[in-house]
Amino acid sequence: MNKLYVVGIGPGGGESMTLQARQILESCDTIVGYTVYVELLKSQFPDKEWLTTPMRRETERCRIAFENAQRGRKVAMVCSGDAGVYGMAGLMLELSPGYPDCEVEVVAGVTAALSGAAALGAPLMHDFAVISLSDLLTPWETIERRLRCAAVADMAICLYNPASRKRADYLQRACDILLETLEPERTCGLAARLGRKGESCEVLTLAQLRERPVDMFTTVFIGNSQTKTVGGKLVTPRGYPI
Amino acid sequence: MNKLYVVGIGPGGGESMTLQARQILESCDTIVGYTVYVELLKSQFPDKEWLTTPMRRETERCRIAFENAQRGRKVAMVCSGDAGVYGMAGLMLELSPGYPDCEVEVVAGVTAALSGAAALGAPLMHDFAVISLSDLLTPWETIERRLRCAAVADMAICLYNPASRKRADYLQRACDILLETLEPERTCGLAARLGRKGESCEVLTLAQLRERPVDMFTTVFIGNSQTKTVGGKLVTPRGYPI
Q1: ipTM field
Q2: Which residues numbered 208-227 in B keep a CB inside 8 Å of some CB on A?
Q3: Residue A13: per-residue pLDDT
């Protein structure tokens, strides 16, 4: 059996990686990934074979990983953040029946919801929803319904993929849906490029968020009804008596 | 300024910890935590001062951390999984204005939703909700509303604290609420004691989950309408064409 690893490298691919992820990457001879994330790792792991495909070539990327494992290479597929949250773990497992001599192991990492929350304070201390605004693979109506339900449920919300060049107004559209239920003063936050050059954090209201241009390297947080700022940090109380 | 760290140690406190978490724990002289999690770490970090409080003494635990930092100790408060998901990050930040000479830094870790998902396959590949069934600090009506909204939104759901000695039937009650919306055959999963003795995973239907006794060391996953099993693993497709 040829074992392949799908490894979440955390934000930035540096010291936010788990010890297990680092050990696995050190032990592999071939690392497969999205071009941008592979660049974050190359200097840390010399002497590896690096195989990349660009965005929207994910299925091909997975097949390259399986084919190299079949050739006896020790392969890791790397994903930014966690392999199992909008990463490649699912697609690798879906394709695995076509490669019966290969076995896929998923290695969890710190996803942007967690790293962004830590940088902002503690906005996800209570129940929360994680929703991607990308409609490349999901009908926009489904995304709208999930936003409405999360707002009605009074859950904190973490938004992935809030914008791209072709989807410049998606975060604004999402804010308009949330504003049907939530007050404009609702406490929100942004975390961008954590662990990379240009890292930044910002606390703002939902009304301000609606007007704020963001890019695809930004993770967005919308507080629940109890979320507040303490010393500039975003905090959603769990409810402990203090 | 006395800097304190609130550190998520991942599941089990072993190699699922991030490199950053490990470096910080190595550099501290005092580690504060819940009795059970501190036991997982003691053998790995000799020569530390260990300070613990039991469950339901969380505020006292945080104050001990601040008071030791004020005395010039280099302090880390440790939390199982991630510090920012049902951990101590929020309470530490809420208490921080009382200790103006102290600064709190949150260090993210792999929370049980991510480690459990990886062990089961990839159930959280698409939008999901994280909900705790503990009503110690949250009215049960709020929990019910969040369960109903997450089910209507067709999000995958991850349940924390599904049971305890005093709340033996809470998972059953949650399943009954979900069964108002979801079919009994809905694909679900359980992950228990990851990274510790007695680690286990199980794939089952929502109807079976309703009848399944679980304990407080178990994390529960309810798939969305697309979730399926592939080679015994739980997979929620993202939607990539294959």
Answers
A1: 0.97
A2: none
A3: 78
